Amino acid sequence: MNSRERVLKAFKRMPGLPDRIPVQFDLCRQLADHFGEKLGVEVNYTDNPYEDVTYRISCNELRLAMGSDVVVTGASVSDNYRIVIEEDGTWLNEYGMRMRQGDIYVEVVNYPLANAETKADIQAFRFPDPEAPGRFKDAEALVKKYKDDYLIFGDIEVTIFSLAHQLVGMEKLLIDMMMEAEYVVPLFEACAEYQTQIGLRLIEKGVDAIWFGDDFGTQVSLIIPPETFREQLKPHYKKMIDRFKEAKPDIIPILHCDGAVAELLDDIREIGFEVFNPVQPGVPGHLPQDMKDNFGDKFAFWGAIDQQDLLPNGTDEELENDIIEKITILGKSGGYMIAPAHIIQNDVTPERVLRFIELCKMHGKY
Fold first, then answer.
1. What is the CA radius of gyration of the chain?
2. pLDDT of res. 226
3. What angle do CA 306, 312, 317 make, to 5 degrees?
4. Are strands 98-101 and 106-110 parallel, antiparallel or unpaired?
5. Cβ distance 57 to 74 under 8 Å?
6. Looking at the DSSP assignment, which residues form a beta bridge with residue 74?
7. DSSP helix/strand/coil, 232
């Protein structure tokens, strides 16, 4: 059984169980560079228009060599766009956001739509051109190289809600959503249309799944009321999936959504998502047994291993016990791909990364 068949079975797209639980992981630049040098594998980076997504769609050759079962690709920064880092360490990305590198992730320091008030303000904004030269050269190459042996995910994370608040500012957007400001729904529509165009082009290149990504939860609760999600956001995701299904009926829609979002999972299934990621551990409503009992017939799960504390700070025994628990519960009768809940950062030692992969494969056999 190759990796492609293994993941299709885990995602309930092929009958029967996989031979083992499939494994996936993302690496920060420091870890990727370390393993590339150690293993003698060329490390290829695909710079995404939103910087943090870069580490989702890069280093595929390396990750496969280390044992990942999937390929993740996405849109590249245009060949026509040059990033210039200023003396203060900031730069403008292709969206027009002024960025700086934070302790772990990038941060927006100047929002291009910070003063948006009307529909006209949104209509005047120009998203990156989906047709720009070089946008999908890496995606095309990866599909051509790996399509027969691996499932290929097309990543359009920072999809609607997250892209909107990166353009406007989180505080402003949340207030204006509650006030039903004129520009809010047009902004969501514009973000959805842009990412739809990116997704359709990834489908044209041959991806098997489209990976959406927007965070609706905090560590303890939802960011917005469920009613607001249903009224202002849900219809746009549904329309996107309908258009992707029209282009490729067997496309697999995946949602990455951090935080305590169990309250929204029935809505998320109604939209059409089939795989839920990252099943963030340690937040209300996300106990493995609750997830499997309440939503195991609605989703395949992907993730569930804590990268905030367990991977960097837990003992090997604690890590092994957690992996066994997640595999035993979430992987029962299929429907699970194991992974850290987010990108593995450089507070995790290289030895620990290798131990994680080893333990997943050791305990993941059916």
1. 20
2. 98
3. 80
4. antiparallel
5. yes
6. 155
7. helix
3-state secondary structure of 174: helix
Mean pLDDT for 12-27 is 97
From the list 343, 356, 283, 363, the residue with the least C-alpha distance to 314 is 356
Structural contact between residues 241 and 274, judged by C-beta atoms closer than 8 angstroms: no
How much is the mean pLDDT over the chain?
A: 97
- Proportion of the chain above pLDDT 90, given as a percent: 98
The SS3 call for residue 38 is helix
What residue type is 214 in one-letter code? D
Q: How would DSSP label each residue in 70-98?
A: EEEEEPPPPTT------TTS-EE-TTS-E
CA–CA separation, 296 and 304 (whole Å)? 14
Q: Is the pLDDT of residue 124 over 90?
A: yes
Beta carbons of 362 and 323 less than 8 angstroms apart: no
Task: Please report the pLDDT score of residue 103 as a whole number.
Answer: 83
Rounded Cα distance, 256 and 237, in Å: 13
The Cα 90–Cα 100 span in angstroms is: 5
| Cα angle for residues 224, 228, 230 (degrees, 5° grid) | 120
Whole-angstrom Cα distance, residue 364 to residue 30? 28
- Closest Cα to residue 183, out of 172, 199, 197? 172
pTM of the model: 0.97
Q: How far apart are CA 216 and CA 114, in angstroms?
A: 21
Q: 154 pLDDT band (50/70/90 cuts)? A: very high
CA nearest to 27, candidates 354, 279, 344: 344
Question: ∠ CA(107), CA(132), CA(119), 5° rounding?
Answer: 60
Q: How many other C-beta atoms lie within 10 A of the C-beta of residue 30?
A: 12
> Facing residues of 152 across strands?
71
Map out the domains of the chain with their CATH numbers.
3-81+112-363 (3.20.20.210)
Of 60-69, 98-107, 219-228, 337-346, the poorest mean pLDDT is in: 98-107
Please write the tens of the pLDDT for every residue from 87-110.
999 999 999 999 999 888 899 999
Mean pLDDT of 325-347: 97
Helix ranges restricted to H, 210-282: 226-228, 234-247, 265-271
Assign 134 a pLDDT band (cuts: 50, 70, 90). very high
